[in-house]
Amino acid sequence: MPRFAANLSLLFTELPFLDRFAAAADAGFQGVEYLFPYDWPASSLAEKLQQHHLTQVLFNLPPGDWQAGERGIACLPDRVEEFREGVFQALEYAEVLDCPRMNCLAGIRPESLPADVAFQTLVENLRFAADLLAAKGMTLTVEAINSKVDMPGFFVDTSLAAMTVIEAAGRENIRFQFDLYHMQIMEGDLCRSLSRLCPHIGHIQFADNPGRHEPGTGEIHFDRVFAHLDALDYQGWVSAEYRPQQDTETSLGWFRPRIN
Length: 260
Ligand SMILES: O=C(O)C(=O)[C@H](O)CO
Ligand SMILES: [Mg+2]
What we know:
CATH architecture: Alpha-Beta Barrel
Strand content: 15-25%
Number of strands: 8
Low-confidence stretches: none
Largest sheet: 8 strands, parallel, barrel
CATH superfamily: Divalent-metal-dependent TIM barrel enzymes
Bound molecules: the ligand O=C(O)C(=O)[C@H](O)CO, magnesium ion
Strand order of the largest sheet: 1-2-3-4-5-6-7-8
Number of helices: 9
Distance between the termini: 7 Å
Structural class: alpha/beta
């Protein structure tokens, strides 16, 4: 059975953020992730993790101005200094939270920015971040996010784009973040892709499609996909990153028979 984690930015949103840790633990999760930790003191988050015996499995590097629609700055050449400062900030959090991996959001490429410049900027930023993380034994992930529905213009929107940039960066501790929801929209053929990419995958997330709700609300055959991960002997975390169709409690039917 995969090791399942709960994404606290999307699940348990009926509760204030800091109360979601207890709710996730009570529901049977042993790991949690969320988009960003930066609005809270690291010590408060660490206390919640310890109190509820939870592992922090992932969070994102600072994304630029999220409220203004930015979705990462790693491909933007005029934001390199800010990117680097963000890596240092994220590392401070990761150490306090004992979090072994962070995701780097490539960002939305403005039409005026040539793709080759965005690519080279991203490669160099990934190397910078990966080298700092490697010194602490941490992994950096690169996620492909669908550009059809959720993030038009996102620079890394296919597994090929992600693997091309990961290979160009050439660092052992950079891995692919395979989000089943985004990959279903962009490519489908999930089990074959998982087989092919498994050695390069550092983290998995999921939601059903369409709608980005819980398993069983859409077209993905989760029984097959989760069994396939077991057959591949995938050892990483698999995070529920979906918006409950009604409420979180009702959405967890897929999880109850699979509590680790
Ligand atoms: O949107 C996703 O799928 C993510 O995992 C990112 O963390 C944030 O956009
Ligand atoms: Mg995701």
